[in-house]
Amino acid sequence: MWTIDVLRSRAFRLALAFALAIAAAATVVFTLIYLQFSSASEQMVGARLADEATRALVENDDELRAQIAQRLASDLRHLDYAGLFDAKGALLLGDPPSLPPIRPDGRPHLVGSVAARGAGSSDQAIFVAVRRADGSILVLGRSLSEINDLRGTVARALALALAPTTILILLIGAFFARRAQRRVGSIHAAIAEIMKGDLKQRLPVMSEVDDLDRVARGVNLMLDEIWRLLDQLRHIGDDIAHDLRTPLAVARAKIERGLERGSTIDELRTAMADALNHLDRSAATISAFLRVSAMESGRRERSFGPVDLSAVCAGLFEFYEPLAQSKGVAIVFMAPRPTLVRGDEDLLREAISNLVDNAIKFTPEGGRVLIAAAAADGRATVEVSDNGSGVPPQDREDIFRRFYRGARDGAAQGYGLGLSIVAAVAKLHGFCLTVEDNAPGARFVLRGECLDFDSDEAARDTGAAGPKRLKASA
Amino acid sequence: MPQIAVTGAKPAVLVIEDERALAEEIRYELQAEGYPVALAETRAEGLRAARAGGAAVLVVDRMLNHEDGLSILKALREEGNSTPILVISALSTVDDRIRGLKAGGDDYLVKPFELRELTARVEALTRRIPESRATRLRAGPLEMDLVERSVRRGERRVDLLPREFKLLEYFMRRPNQIVTRAMLLEDVWNYKFLPQTNVVDVHIGNLRRKIDAGGEPRLIVNVRAAGFKLHVDD
User: Fold this and answer.
1) How many domains does one find in chain A?
2) A321, A327, A331, best to mutate vs chain B, most B CBs in 10 Å
3) Consecutive H or E run containing A108
4) pLDDT for the residue numbered B39
5) Which of A121, A154, A347, B62 is the most exposed place for a label (fewest CB within 10 A)?
6) Domain co-membership, A423 together with A275
């Protein structure tokens, strides 16, 4: 039933309106031509008759009679009138049979109905009457039937021209309507597939650049993004499943063994404490996953402001100094100047804290941890390095992957969670996070775009950046 | 409608939580600490119970079976009810937290939490006293001068670093109250994350060494599975 749909479609309705408009315009044009044409012809006829009548005034009687006779004789189509009437209005010679009701003033007059000389004569004619010197009246006239015939021709031409034009426009409209309908139909079909769950479907795009194509391209880009996010979500799901099952399986095993073999309260307590540990780990994993996902979805930018990474590092240095001391690890802090970046202070602090946490954890007694922040050439750099066991080259890519746990000993637990948060924070800020060989040890470096210290925003929000900082303790 | 019977010495707590199992655990833990507890499962029930009065602290889940728990806070605050409220939530971003506190929450705890963390926070809320303008704090043998920034234990002067001073001040404002690591990080350091290492314990250890010199009884004690407590005899 495409016909009804086509008739209802926008394109067809537009074509219909267009056809009506064209018909109206053509009618107006033809009417104007018609009116101009008929009045011009009548004027021409009238003027010619008036000229002839004026000329005839000077002729003598015989000549005039001869001319009248000749004029009537040569008028095969019975369009001309030429008559001579006496002063009382009685016909002396020629045609029409009775004096037309006009004044003999030598000007053309339109007379509505004239007694016909021959069959088929028109009922309308233009007459000119002049009074001659002897009182007789000469009447010249010409029927308008010819002009009226022409008028009919013009009207027919208009009708003949309008009909095919309208039909043509409607056909073209129907063609476009059907084409548009086909495209809308294919888009509908694609949408139906997508709604059924096939998110790889895309709306069809023609090569041309029309409105529908632009909308379809926009929708396709949106679908790409949705697909990307869903894909990411699926991966997160897989990761979560993997990372949660392990501690859950262990916790379950501990409880099971406790139930089966635990005979004393102490044995049961130990089993439960172990199980709780692993449950805590899976809870921590969920929290970290959610935080990383929230960060990766990139919806936190509005909390961004100027952050002085030097001040953040100074605070963390002070925070971690006692821990390092208690482990016999020297900790050094270097930040000669403020290091301003645009970001979320809490997240950046958490990220750097994770790096420091790891560094202290992996540095043996007598080792050294360095926290440094610097700004140069528009680049802000935060470095956390140690001279501990380092990261083997083959692991350097992997450790930033979500929840990677390297082949480290048990003491290194939590390493993966921390670094994946660091990586997510770096990504959210558009910072670059790398790990390098510190020969020996690892050097984690965060590099990002530096804020101009003199910028208004920076000057307004950050005042606490001291001029020079260099601290060390052992 | 839940009734709150004021039986023990501790003030009553109203828990508005739709997950029955969690609500029961919270009740068990709070009752073990001596708090009379009433439970409410829906927003309407919770609001009724809160309006009826009797509870010194409200524990409100942010998401109550698709109802917005925060609207309870807003409604109560608009009515001029200023009962301290602890919001518990599965939403953990800073924005969520700020929204929770803005709606009238006094503290915010993210699921899953340790029950001891919750009881510690409830205790903190029941004892909440307005910041006094006193320039001297006293707790047991400890005496702190907030103007001179000096601390004495009995006759002995204790020299503290600025951070240690702030840490001790926090404890002295909450004598005999359980203080968790997360509370210390949030309130003393203004940090919104939990470090993976025992860095807070190290800070406490350093502080302890300075205030408990040579065989004096320990003032800041560990509370198993919860945190610390400044233990003084009143």
Assistant:
1) 3
2) A321
3) none
4) 94
5) A154
6) no
Provide the token pair at B206: 């350093």
Per residue in A184-209, pLDDT (tens digit) is 888 889 889 888 888 888 888 877 77
User: Per the confidence metrics, is the pTM higher than 0.90?
Assistant: no
Task: Name the DSSP class of B170.
Answer: H
Cβ–Cβ gap A353/B203 under 8 Å: no
Please count the helices (runs of H) and the strands (runs of E) in chain A.
10, 13
Whose structure tokens read 């929204």? Answer: B99
A323 vs B contacts (CB less than 8 Å): 197-199, 202
Q: What is the residue whose two structure tokens read 């139930």?
A: A259
Give A160's contacts (C-beta < 8 A, 6+ positions apart): none
Question: Of A239, A271, A296, which residue is a domain's last?
Answer: A296
Q: What CATH number should be reported for the domain holding residue A317?
A: 3.30.565.10
CA B97 vs CA A311, A351, B83, B94, B104: distances in Å: 25, 19, 19, 5, 11
Q: Which two three-digit tokens encode residue A303?
A: 């909390």
Same domain, residue pair A273 and A329: no
pLDDT tens-digit map of A29-44: 888 887 887 888 888 8
A202 touches chain B (CB under 8 A): no
Of A290, A315, A357, the CB nearest to B195: A357
Q: What span, in angstroms and rounded, lies between the C-alpha atoms of A294 and A286?
A: 12
C-alpha separations of A238 from A232, A245, A402 in Å = 10, 11, 11
Q: Which domain holds residue A345?
A: 302-473
Q: Which of B128, B141, B116 is nearest to B26 (CA)?
A: B116
What residues does B221 pair with on adjacent strands?
A: B229
Six token digits for residue A338: 């403020």
